[in-house]
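Hey,

Quick one before I head out. I ran the complex with 4'-deoxy-4'-aminopyridoxal-5'-phosphate overnight. Inputs first:
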Amino acid sequence: MSSPQSSSLAYAVRADFFRPSPVRAVFDISMREGMISLAGGNPDLGVLPLAELGEVAARLIAEQGLEVLQYGAGAGMAPLREAVCDVMRTAGIDAVADDILITSGSQMGLELVTSLLCDPGDVVLAEAPTYVGAIGTFQGLEAQIVHVPCDDDGLIPAELERTIAEVRAQGRTIKMLYTIPNFNNPSGITLHPDRRPVVAEICARAGIAVVEDDPYGLLDFWDAPLQAIRSFDDSVVYLGSMSKIFSPGIRIGWVLAPRDVRDRLQLAAEATTICPSVLSQHLANTYLRDFDWRGYMNRAIDQYHERAQRLDAALAAHLPASVRWTAPHGGFFVWLTLPAGLSAEQLLPLAIEEGVVFVPGTAFFGDGTGDDNLRLSFSLESPDRIEEGVRRLARVIAAQLDA
Ligand code: PMP
């Protein structure tokens, strides 16, 4: 017998705070025959050496099965914690394995940090716009999101100070600044290097934790590594991920935090998952240790770069001059601003009819604003399909402007 459609369970109040992600909502549409998807943020895994990885996985189970199929350490395995310290060195971060907690993706790290720091009603400051998955986490844990204005160089330090003062004057408690300084999802914008120590200093002075989410930092088109905010201030909580430099399916991320924070995060993590997947950790560790992972990543980056250039050129060629967009030099996303009077949410069904899908800007604000924006992803479609997708989008925008 199948499960009933509805039950008479009495839900907790917080059950209503978990909402469907607008990105996941367009996922099924993206899969439709002939649809061009500029919506998702999936990495291109076509560069991966699948046969060799398959041999590694088979060997791990055949030769070390009694270990890799067993429970493991709550903090994650030591060699992987060391390996991710090496990865972070590129961003100027000097850390040791004991500072690291391995998580099931950086999404879990974000959830743990938020649950450790935020009581219901506490304020989280975040870029305007910010990552839709972070908004879901904050809302699920009943934290309130207050956006800090940004320009083409990311968070504006003076606006950060003004926002802190304004929120505090309202009698509200600010617990953390959540920031994606590199190739922000969704805006593609990067925090200017000069602003990084300033942002850290403002938050330190105000007694606000900085949570730096950095899944895209290594995906720099110009191979000019950006120094993490954490490199200027050891108290910053830094979230890293294997999702964009290897595979999101293995669900491996990490948190780097001051020792007392890290220890508490581990207790919270153990209460949720006992330990991160041991098999996935071994796979990730072997990939970082024995494979030319930077070589594979660079091949993927070359493709992302080509696609981003094609997207930029297609937008310039096909869209009216009144539309503006960002020009990221890394990551997966371009952020588009429509001319006054147009609504991204109203455009979406028309675009889907035309055979192209994007994510409306409202997904990336906690307060329902952003309807004059849309996020376009260039990570997965081929350059030709990206160009065709923009042609379709341009037709819909032109028709709306004429209407
Ligand atoms: N932070 C940001 C900014 C992201 O874009 C994503 C994934 N889209 C995540 C966190 C979650 O990554 P993970 O797969 O490591 O959980």
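The pocket of 4'-deoxy-4'-aminopyridoxal-5'-phosphate is lined by residues 41, 105-107, 131, 133, 180, 185, 213, 215, 241, 243, 248, 253 (CB under 6 Å).

Talk tomorrow,
K.
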